[in-house]
Recover the amino acids of this structure.
């Protein structure tokens, strides 16, 4: 392996200036003018309530709702002008806005509301979640099974921090359902107040063994492949950058800020830039060496890089992830590097559009060989 394969792992992103230090930022949209105000007492008496929330949601959110008031002073309609990027949260805010009373200078009119959604009372302990992942039986691998298990979790009722766990939707595989249920019962929560009886966390655990043979089959296949043919030549000139079809590990940037630095296979990159608010984490050198020693065909190890944009960076909070690996090009028969890019953006719509635009100009059309 050549040294520059690893040291230049930031590659296209760093060269493309993804830190946005010299960007001219687009202006934020001008809020809709309004001539009505919400009645504070009615707002306090009927706060926004989340009956259910995503398991990994652990922070408060702020969004803006536009309420349209008819000539009789009643709420005709509500809409989101600044989204929380969470469908259930947006819906809960619009539903609450319809219950509130308003004072208008004249009707019909509008009221532009800033709505704060508090964090769930009970937050998932991510260490317990990482330590207790579902352990699926080998039989599912032999059957090439795939599916998803949907769970409901009601934390707050146990002194040890566990939750009441129930199956919301089965995968169709009893063994897979039980593996997920067993893992979820070991997850722990921290609660700042007794959980409301109707507040339930939900999550979906997916598994896919349709293209994953058993470990024994993998080893047999690898030995047979090495025995019957030589390793294809490696050509770094064929490197491409594509949009990553693999979902991001977490739904929100803050979850990356808290979790990625704690992983034992990740380290702060030596290619760290001096841009305020930008932190670059990458696959550790120890993990890279493990890959190299485990394979006799690996010109370039699999390296993942997370570019974390935190305050005071203008794109905060957001995360861009790149995964660099080696594939065999079907057209040329050569092995070549490929970089896959994905991101999550919790910043303003204008900033997220800038990130999307930068990535769109970097990636190439995805072909069947990707």
């Amino acid at each position: 392996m050549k040294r520059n394969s690893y040291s230049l792992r930031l590659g296209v992103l760093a060269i493309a200036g993804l830190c946005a230090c010299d960007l001219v930022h687009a202006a934020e949209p001008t809020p809709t003018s309004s001539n009505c105000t919400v009645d504070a007492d009615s707002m306090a008496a009927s706060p926004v309530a989340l009956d259910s929330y995503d398991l990994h949601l652990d922070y408060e959110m702020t969004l803006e709702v536009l309420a349209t008031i008819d000539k009789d002073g009643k709420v005709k309609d509500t809409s989101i002008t600044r989204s929380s990027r969470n469908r259930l949260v947006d819906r809960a805010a619009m539903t609450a806005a319809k219950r509130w009373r308003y004072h208008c200078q004249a009707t019909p009119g509008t009221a532009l509301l800033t709505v704060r959604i508090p964090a769930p009372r009970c937050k998932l302990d991510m260490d317990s979640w990482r330590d207790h992942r579902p352990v699926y039986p080998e039989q599912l691998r032999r059957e090439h099974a795939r599916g998803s298990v949907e769970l409901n979790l009601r934390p707050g009722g146990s002194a040890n921090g566990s939750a009441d766990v129930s199956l919301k939707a089965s995968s169709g595989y009893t063994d897979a359902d039980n593996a997920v249920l067993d893992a979820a019962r070991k997850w722990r929560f921290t609660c700042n107040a007794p959980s409301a009886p109707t507040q339930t966390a939900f999550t979906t655990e997916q598994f896919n063994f349709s293209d994953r043979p058993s470990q024994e089959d993998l080893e047999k296949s690898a030995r047979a492949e090495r025995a019957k043919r030589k390793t294809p030549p490696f050509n770094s000139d064929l490197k491409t950058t594509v949009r990553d079809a693999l979902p991001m590990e977490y739904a929100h940037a803050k979850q990356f800020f808290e979790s990625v630095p704690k992983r034992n296979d990740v380290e702060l990159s030596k290619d760290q830039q001096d841009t305020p608010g930008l932190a670059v984490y990458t696959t550790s050198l120890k993990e890279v060496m493990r890959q190299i020693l485990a394979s006799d065909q690996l010109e370039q190890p699999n390296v993942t890089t997370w570019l974390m944009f935190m305050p005071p960076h203008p794109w905060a909070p957001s995360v861009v992830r790149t995964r660099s690996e080696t594939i065999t090009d079907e057209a040329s028969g050569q092995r070549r590097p490929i970089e896959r890019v994905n991101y999550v953006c919790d910043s303003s719509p204008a900033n997220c559009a800038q990130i999307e635009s930068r990535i769109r100009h970097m990636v190439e059309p995805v072909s069947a060989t990707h």
User: Anything to note?
Assistant: The CA atoms of residues 108 and 185 lie 52 Å apart. The mean pLDDT is 82. The radius of gyration is 25 Å. The domain at 36-117 is CATH 3.30.2420 (TolA/TonB C-terminal domain).
